[in-house]
Design goal:
Order of helices and strands of chain A: HE
Largest sheet of chain B: none
Structural class of chain A: mainly alpha
Strand content of chain A: 5-15%
Number of strands of chain B: 1
Largest sheet of chain A: none
Shape of chain A: elongated
Strand content of chain B: under 5%
Helix content of chain A: 40-55%
Distance between the termini of chain B: 109 Å
Radius of gyration of chain B: 29 Å
Order of helices and strands of chain B: HHHHHHEHHHH
Largest interface: A-B, 43 and 61 residues
Structural class of chain B: mainly alpha
Number of helices of chain A: 1
Distance between the termini of chain A: 50 Å
Oligomer: heterodimer
Number of strands of chain A: 1
Number of helices of chain B: 10
Radius of gyration of chain A: 18 Å
Chain lengths: 47, 298
């Protein structure tokens, strides 16, 4: 029983995310932002 | 009024009292019509991420509806183990559905209010399906006691927002401070999108306020104040812990790694670890099965 609960969770979450990945989506991150409530700054130049 | 209209203007050749820009011919007027500006946030769009999550939740809602009827129909015998396994798989799947709608609400694209609408519509669809199965099972099996437990039902229903916030706590932190987001590969949104707008802050404040009010309203009349809130505290801690230990790493291993097969191995290792730890905890908290109890009594 304790094996099937994580299995159900993993299959549902990761199955959905693999479909999302196949659709061209990725997890994007950035350097830490110390003040997410501050005013917006200019975007960095594209590489 | 121009400098020449000024009645006390200095004579020609004297130092001008206005900057050069004021003496220059007027610049052509800029067309400031609203259509010339592009907003940070797009108009109402249906993101692919939301559609995929919606399809998954709709399909799995069919299975959610079978949970209570299967539980009621289970009887001791060879099929009992299969029924228990199915129930456990479905229980985990319900947690997984909560996880995918959390991912959509926190890390999806588009304005916050639209993501919240998607989130809550899908949560209510999944919960309604489970409730439908519960009602069907009650009417078929529990004919002796057909009273619907309204008070408990509304307690759970009104507590769903608190559980949702508990699931979202860690993902929101990662979004705020490390700018986690799920977007099309190569997409680079403007910097303003990465920060909270005033509207987002207002919506967030209202959501938290309504959440706490809902939990307060959902308290059963006969429940003790302390035990009621301790129960929710335990539920919130559990949801936050699962989010931190399972949801966040799995999202990273699935969407954040370059090689999909490497991510699959990491996901499998994490799931196996969680299952092993869960089994050990279960055995420690429930010492002795039926056979042990029989031995001890004899």
């Amino acid at each position: 029983m304790m094996v099937m609960i994580p299995a159900g969770f993993t299959l549902t979450l990761c199955g959905t995310l693999w479909i999302v990945r196949a659709g061209g989506y990725r997890l994007a991150t950035s350097p830490p932002l110390m003040n997410p409530f501050g005013p917006p700054t200019s975007a960095p130049p594209a590489a | 009024m121009t400098p020449s209209d000024y009645p006390y203007a200095s004579p020609e050749g004297a130092k001008s009292w206005q900057p050069e820009s004021a003496l220059a011919p007027p610049a052509p007027q800029l067309d400031a019509s609203a259509s010339k500006f592009t907003l940070h946030e797009p108009a109402f769009v249906v993101p692919t991420l939301a559609l995929i999550v919606a399809m998954v939740v709709l399909i799995l809602s069919v299975f959610n509806a079978t949970m209570v009827p299967v539980a009621v129909a289970m009887e001791p015998g060879p099929a009992f183990a299969f029924g228990l396994g199915y129930m456990s798989l479905l229980l985990g799947s319900i947690g997984g559905q909560a996880a995918v709608v959390t991912v959509l609400a926190v890390w999806g694209t588009g304005p916050l209010w639209q993501r919240l609408v998607w989130h809550w519509v899908l949560v209510l669809v999944a919960f309604s399906a489970w409730t439908f199965g519960f009602v069907v099972a009650m009417n078929s099996q529990f004919g002796r006691n057909p009273d619907f437990p309204e008070e408990e039902f509304f307690t759970v229903l009104l507590g769903l927002p608190l559980l949702a916030l508990a699931c979202q706590a860690v993902p929101w932190m990662l979004k705020f401070y490390f700018n986690w987001r799920i977007e099309q590969e190569g997409e680079d949104p403007p910097a303003a999108d990465r920060r909270l707008s005033i509207r987002d802050m207002i919506v967030g404040t209202v959501v938290v306020a309504l959440t706490m009010a809902a939990v307060r309203i959902g308290k059963p009349a006969n429940a003790a104040e302390g035990s009621y809130w301790m129960g929710w505290l335990f539920a919130v801690a559990t949801a936050t812990g699962i989010s931190l230990v399972c949801l966040v790493p799995m999202v990273y291993f699935t969407l954040g790694v370059r090689r999909a097969w490497m991510g699959a191995i990491e996901v499998a290792a994490l799931a196996a670890t969680v299952a092993a730890v869960g089994t050990i905890l279960f055995i420690m908290l429930n010492p002795g099965g039926p056979s042990d109890k029989k031995k001890r009594s004899s």
